[in-house]
Specification:
By secondary structure, this protein is α+β, with helices and mostly antiparallel strands. It has one domain: Alpha-Beta Plaits. Helix 1 runs antiparallel to helix 3. The protein is globular. The N and C termini lie far apart (34 Å).
Length: 113
């Protein structure tokens, strides 16, 4: 099942460390089958507030996403970003192609008083 890394990053001023981070990032993804799905492209907020940028990476599975995050190659460059950009980053497992929310709906209805 695919997995994703989703980052909601707050706006940051340009910095040489950020340029280096972005230059080096693709090489850290390759060994784990990771790829960019969204990379700071414009977004449209429909509800709530979402200042900053969105980055979304795709991986073959959650194990690969975790292995990438924990890898020495990524951990070496992560401070280049984290020193200059605040944000939230999550790893999340996707759903299979034939996913249906029926089971969740049943669980919600069962939990109703």
């Amino acid at each position: 099942m695919p997995a994703y890394v989703i980052a909601h990053l707050q706006d940051a001023a340009p910095h040489p460390d950020i340029a280096e981070y972005v230059e080096r990032l693709p090489a850290t993804l390759a060994p784990y089958g990771g790829r960019f799905l969204v990379h700071a492209t414009p977004h449209e907020v429909k509800e709530g507030a979402w200042p900053g940028a969105v980055v979304m990476l795709g991986f073959p599975g959650i194990a690969e996403a975790r292995a990438w995050w924990d890898s020495p190659a990524y951990q070496e460059i992560a401070p280049l970003r984290s020193r200059h950009i605040e944000g939230d980053i999550i790893l999340v497992e996707g759903v299979p192609d034939d996913y249906s929310p029926t089971g969740l709906v049943q669980a919600i209805r069962t939990a109703l008083p």
